[in-house]
Amino acid sequence: MEREVWNSKIGFLLAATGSAMGLGNVWRFPYITGANGGAAFVLIYFIIVFSIGVPVMLAEFAVGRSSKLNAVGAFKKLKGGKWPVVGWIGIIAGFIILSYYSVIAGWTIKYFISSFTGLISPNVNTTTYFNQFTSNGLQNIFFQAIFILITIYVVYLGVEKGIETWSKILMPILILILLLLVIRGVSLPGAPDGIRFYLNPNFSEVTGRTILAALGQAFFSLSLGMGAMITYGSYIPKEISLPKSAFIVTFLDMLLALLAGFVIFPTAFTFGIEPGAGTGLIFITLPSIFALMPFGQIWSALFFLLLFIAALTSAIGLLEVSVAYVKDERNWSRKKAALALGTTAFIIGVPSALSNGTISLNLFGMQFLDAMDYLSSNILLPLGGIFVTLFVGWVIKDTALKEINLEGKFKFEKSWIWICRTIAPISIFLIFLAGIGLL
Ligand code: PHE
């Protein structure tokens, strides 16, 4: 069978950007920033995104397009030996992420509906509202299931018709709405404090944990270290420049996260909401700002709808990694793969859906959902990143260089290889050690 490819350059760019932009930017970035003290974290995050994120993404694109295979198959074809294990780490990480990602994405569906049923009002205490909802296990599972079903359906439709078409239409609208919210946010009375917290760094509080959190956020937000960009890369037609694509996707991803922060922190400081409030941060701050706007209900509904879609384009990427694997390597049909794997992710996600107040379920001293997030983002994804860069830098250097130069010479090829060989894997490793307290 002919391998599926992206239909157009812009289609691929938007799909890859759609995978990158998701809850990671609008939900995770603000809450992790809040939990890690604000501006210093943001600065470290940006440094990591450009020094490690872009090179790792390029490495994944190169592995994907030169092999035209899924994450496990790519390593098998290009080298074999133990290398396919790297693809497996990715598949496992993808499952774990999808499992709790769908819980949070389910919240966006709930909030979309609630926009019209009493959430948006100056009399509502948004913290209480959030806590009541998330401790209702049945509702959480219900919305999680709906989200996974929709994801399965789009993946089942296939790469081009499903993922590409939707991403193309909807991502620009999300950015526009965020811009509008930024204008509202920065004109709130708490804006100066919020912006100070967000942009005025205080390095005395930076620890190894902060840097590891920034690294984990970079991998999560850019969809790196788990084979997603290898898989998407495998569908890229030859005439698209890989270095340019890596840069554009990263840039847009960062822009969206940055904008979200400009809405959340001014709002938090205006309404006395703790910026370190945790996973609920955007679900608590945003309804407060909508309540202040004319037609607040409609803005709120529109916003959560778009966030839902952003989450969907990312969840599709998460599921596509394992679907591509069983399709390529085990000859499963796309339909069977999407259904079986999607259902599995749903089941693994149930404890996460219940861990926000329904039952008390802790792991490593964190709520189950947070523990899953920590394990995948801060441990598995960086681990994947170390191996992908080592693989490109040492094992398939010539193939990779040829691949990224197909559409014209890449000026920074030497530095890129050097980063893949040493700087990226070593710094990821050191950050990792510092983050878990061993350095
Ligand atoms: N990057 C996505 C986000 O920010 C999450 C994701 C991670 C998607 C890994 C695919 C693979 O929401």
Which keywords apply here?
two-stranded antiparallel sheet, binds phenylalanine, 439 residues, Amino acid/polyamine transporter I, single chain, transmembrane helix, mainly alpha
Number of helices: 18
**CATH-level-4 superfamily name:** Amino acid/polyamine transporter I
Biggest sheet: strands, sense, closure?
A: 2 strands, antiparallel
Instruction: Please identify the top-level CATH class.
Output: Mainly Alpha
Number of strands: 2
Mean pLDDT: 91
Radius of gyration, Cα only, in angstroms?
21 Å
CATH architecture assignment:
Up-down Bundle
Shape: globular
> Structural class of the secondary elements?
mainly alpha
CATH topology: Amino acid/polyamine transporter I
Q: What strand line-up does the widest sheet have?
A: 1-2
| DSSP helix fraction | over 70%
What percent of residues are in strands?
under 5%
Series of secondary-structure elements, N-terminal to C-terminal: HHHHHHHHHHHHHHHEEHHH
Number of domains: 1
Spans with pLDDT under 50 lasting ≥5 residues? none
Q: What ligands does this structure carry? A: phenylalanine
The span between the termini is: 50 Å
Summarize the structure.
This protein has helices at residues 9-20, 23-35, 39-67, 71-78, 84-114, 126-134, 137-157, 159-186, 191-199, 208-221, 228-233, 242-271, 281-291, 296-330, 334-354, 368-395, 397-404, 413-435; strands at residues 362-363, 366-367. It is mostly helical and 439 residues long. It has a two-stranded antiparallel sheet with strand order 1-2.
